[in-house]
Amino acid sequence: MLEFRRSFNCCKSFGCSNLGRVNSPDYTHDSYHLGFRALHCQRCGSYPPWVDDASVSQLLSQLLNQHFQPRVNTCPNCAPRLLIDQNPDFQHYGRTGAGNPRVRCKSCHKVYTLGRWTVNEHMPAILLALASATPPLQTMQQLEIAPKIYYQLLNRLAQGLRSWSREQELKLKQRPVQRLLSESQVLKFCGNRGLWTLASADADSGYILLHSHNASHQPMSVEGVYQSKPDSRLAQFDELSILQALRQRYDQTMQRSHFEELNLGELQSLRCGYLAKPALLAYAHFQALRVFSDSHQHIHHYLEQESCIRGAALMGCAERIHTKLAEVFYIIRHQQGETAIPPEGHNVGWWNDRWYPDEFGAYCPITSRHHYTHPFKLAAARACEDFFSYVRQQVPTQLKSLAPLESLFEVARCLFNYCHSDNLGQSPAMRAGLVSECLTPEQLLNTVAAALAGEEAGSKKGD
């Protein structure tokens, strides 16, 4: 069974034997030498900022419940999570008075009635409206349904799409090498409301695997809550040469009180939500991403150039880094990468990070800083950026409550993966080898309904 890291207060310096190691005798805890609470690693001299482990655990639990909910037609007592837990076997146990099949779980012996995921008469129209970015209120008026019914059907759509798509993603876990791309963006709504989102894609196909945000449904601790401060996000500096842009981005990082302090400006949570510090969400996100990466022999992880994300990504594969089974890189997209940076690379920034040119811009090895041969061809360098653009079109800016957001995000993720095509007519799911054609929203819904009905038919067959 997959076990997630519980503590993130450790050294995060590549090359140090304490990388990812908790409770080393080399540590001095609660150091304020740099003006903020940190852990001091005496072996390498680093001062990683203190991480509120309890807040990360809270966010991770929310992510797992959100993205890996139990399968349709599974034991409600065991509640095996998609892609994480093994689905327990069951045996037929008669029928209800209405004729619905009952089964008995062979693991916990609970008797339960098989549920049914069916397509309501309004669900095709709702999915098509979401795919065409029609505002929810307009869809409710056209279908003459109340908001409560609309959001119930939206949640049901998301449940079916999630259950089916996660089963498809099992095929991706069979590859010997997993290449991942992770980037972030702020999604804003009316009245200074918004959240920080983090997406991870299969870097070969552009298929979006995980999309999370820093809004919690439960109150955050004082250490974990986001406090609105002047925006410290790194600018792209597209008008500058790539080397100038990199230097400016490093200078902006150095201006923070500490490197993981990513501030988003004056940002308030949606109703029924509580904003967490971005760095805490990053730690939870990269732990949840292990659901996809831990089954692979080797991992290449490509990150946007952001210190808030860097430490979290290293903690997501620290054990594999020690055994040379994982590599982590920064990337930056820029039109001048191949012409402005020499093939042998160029050192930039206070850490002398060595950047190498590539057709999409440049990359910097975080885990192997010297004499690194070209490690990859990043086929889907714009995957996260394209997905964020798609989400901005799909999710209404008039949204005021956090409640329907997870459903909207999941529907958008599946529509992007299976129905959004590139200039060659291929969807991310096609490039990943999960489907043979780019699906229409109607085809996607019919495929999901048929697959989930097949699950029920399979259980009836065992009668």
Explain how this protein is built.
With about 475 residues, the protein is an alpha+beta fold. The chain has two domains: about 1-50, no CATH class; about 55-70 and about 120-450, no CATH class. About 35% of the residues lie in helices and about 20% in strands. It has helices spanning about 55-65, 125-130, 135-145, 145-170, 240-255, 280-290, 290-295, 305-315, 320, 335-340, 385-395, 405-420, 430, 440-460, and strands spanning about 25-30, 40, 90-95, 100-105, 110-115, 175-190, 195-200, 210-215, 215, 275, 300-305, 325-335, 345-350, 355-360, 360-365. An eight-stranded mixed sheet has the order 8-7-6-11-12-15-14-13, sandwiched between helices. Strands 3-4-5 form a three-stranded antiparallel sheet, with no helix packed on it. A hairpin with a 2-residue loop joins β14 and β15. The two termini are about 30 Å apart. The model is unreliable at about 455-463 (pLDDT under 50).
Task: Write a brief caption for the model.
The protein has about 475 residues and is an alpha+beta fold. The chain has helices at about 55-65, 125-130, 135-145, 145-170, 240-255, 280-290, 290-295, 305-315, 320, 335-340, 385-395, 405-420, 430, 440-460, and strands spanning about 25-30, 40, 90-95, 100-105, 110-115, 175-190, 195-200, 210-215, 215, 275, 300-305, 325-335, 345-350, 355-360, 360-365.
Pairing-aware structural class of the strands and helices? Answer: alpha+beta
Please indicate the percent range of residues in DSSP E strands (runs of 2 or more): 15-25%
Largest sheet, spatial ordering of strands: 8-7-6-11-12-15-14-13
Give the integer mean of the pLDDT values.
Answer: 90
Unreliable segments (pLDDT under 50, ≥5 consecutive)?
456-463
The count of β-strands is 15
Alpha carbon gyration radius: 23 Å
End-to-end CA span: 30 Å
User: What is the count of distinct domains?
Assistant: 2
Instruction: Give helix % range.
Output: 25-40%
What characterizes the major β-sheet? 8 strands, mixed
Helical stretch count? Answer: 14
Coarse morphology: globular
